[in-house]
Amino acid sequence: MKTVAIVVSILLVLLFVVLCIWEVGIFKLHPSLMAVSYLGCMFQAIHIFSMDDTSCSPSLPRRKQILIHSFLQVGTIICSIIAFTAIYTTKIQRNKPHFTSWHGFIGLIVFIWSLLQAVAGLFLTIFQRYIRSLRLTYAQLRIYHATSGVLLFTISCFVLILGLASNWFKIFHKSTGKKTDTIDIIINL
């Protein structure tokens, strides 16, 4: 089952990249890198802790799982910062308002939440001695971090779907003729 999830994740990332490659300018970095960030890196980072019986990750030592998770999350943050910068710059260049759609507003929340999650992860791995001042155990904080991360991933998927329903996506793919039946189904959900 884990292999299927990984393949679907990679295919969805490739779909976003291929759909956006035709766009001119830096805007194309926004949808493609957000897909790489959340559907690619973040999904894999969360999935490394999967307890699926067919998974190879439970056989990895916990420290290696955390190291792989950390590297993937660094990729998530780097890609999302570049993608956020691309859309912010594009909005300024086109003299359009920021964060006026549900996609933009919830996307901003997800972006900020991702940065906060990264800081929380740093405290859990590198700055453990400071955790004692919070009067919570390491195990409690780990559960909070994991739960928050899964919720963050779920909401980020919702934001990606909202992006597929955006005016730009609908207009762009109608005008280029690159629209497919699969995209029609996703947009009309």
TrEMBL record:
Keywords: Electron transport, Heme, Iron, Membrane, Metal-binding, Transmembrane, Transmembrane helix, Transport. Its cofactor is heme b. It is a multi-pass membrane protein. The chain crosses the membrane at residues 30-49, 70-90, 102-127, 148-169. Its main location: membrane. It is found in: Membrane. Residues 1-189 form the Cytochrome b561 domain. Its EC number is 7.2.1.3. One of its GO terms (molecular function) is transmembrane monodehydroascorbate reductase activity. One of its GO terms (cellular component) is membrane. This is ascorbate ferrireductase (transmembrane). It comes from Rotaria sordida. The lineage of its organism: Eukaryota, Metazoa, Spiralia, Gnathifera, Rotifera.
